[in-house]
Amino acid sequence: MRCRFALSPVLETIQAIRLTSPEDVPGHHRGFLHSVRHQLTALDLRPVTLLQPRRGYSPDFLSPPPTVAHPRFADELACIEATPLDRVREEVARSLRDSRGGDRTDVGRRLLADPADALRMLTGVIQDVWQEVIEPVWPRVRALLDADVAYQSRRMAEGGLDRLFAELHPQLRWHDGVLTRERGDDEHRDLTGNGLLLMPSAFKFDQVLVILDDPWQPTVIYPARGLATLWQSASAQELASLGRLVGRTRATLLTGLAEPATTTVLAHRHALAAGTVSEHLTVLRDSGLVVGERHRHEVRYRRTPLGTALVDQAV
């Protein structure tokens, strides 16, 4: 099966907008979002957030499939702006039906009233967030995504798809030529002739998104490797004192456990070998700083009150 990698500045921008919802913010992005809070509060994000229900349909036209490995933001935005108005009307209405009461809000009614106005509102929000929030840090984000692509490409070259999917994401399994997503639906798709598009994301955290609908080729969007290191320089001073006490890698893992995570997730998030993470977690567990709890077939680690107090004291 053929695989290719691609990035999407527009997709990253929309995913970042989704993170402005308080319940959607992972620990490793909180510092960044706090640093850009003034830019975000100056923008009215509701036209986009209203069409991003936590569970439900989001308009496909807002995420055009990348045709090249590194599309330009301006080209992707132009593709959205060229969306036929009938399609805008249909997909906006479908999304608002999945947004609780969204069609009864002032913004929702405006989105439904005029598809041309809706398209201008949506592209305006996306462009503003890109310019004010994402573009200034895009070199850092792009470097993380490029590093992930290089790493995954190297693994695929060394051991084929078996090696690639072995650690790409805990929800993905590759066995006997079949790619399975745990906790996904039962839909099966023959990828012969279509191949697979793999897209690392800096703002898509923990969960994997699988797209099988036209005009996309079969696509897997997954959290980029080393995600927890993306904003690490901002907290380097905070990590230093804790690192002197427990060691830098263990300090990084302990600080990163703002929410429970498995060894595999932590390894992917911090760009570490799973064995290395396991060894450090054992030390942290034996020291009473973390505890492992079994959930179905996996063990998730979380900080103990002592571990949290230690992190809070360092910060």
Topology:
Elements (H helix, E strand, L loop, with lengths): L2 E3 L3 H10 L8 H9 L1 H5 L4 H4 L23 H9 L3 H13 L8 H8 L1 H20 L3 H29 L5 E4 L2 E4 L14 E6 L7 E3 L7 E5 L12 H11 L1 H9 L4 E2 H8 L3 H13 L3 E6 L2 E6 L1 H10 L1
Parallel strand pairs: 1-4, 4-6
Antiparallel strand pairs: 2-3, 5-6, 7-9, 8-9
Helix pairs in contact: 1-8, 5-8, 6-8, 7-8, 10-11, 11-13, 12-13
Task: Provide a quick synopsis of the model.
Pfam families: DUF5937. With 315 residues, this protein is α/β, with parallel strands linked by helices.
Q: Give the N-terminus to C-terminus distance in angstroms.
A: 47 Å
Which percent range fits the helix content? 40-55%
Summed over residues and divided by their number, the pLDDT gives a mean of 86
Percentage of residues in strands: 5-15%
Query: Regarding quaternary structure, how should these chains be classified?
Result: single chain
Largest sheet composition: 4 strands, mixed
Order of helices and strands: EHHHHHHHHHEEEEEHHEHHEEH
Number of structurally distinct domains: 2
What structural category characterises the helix and strand content?
Answer: alpha/beta
Low-confidence segments? none
Major sheet strand order = 1-4-6-5
Query: What would you call the shape?
Result: globular
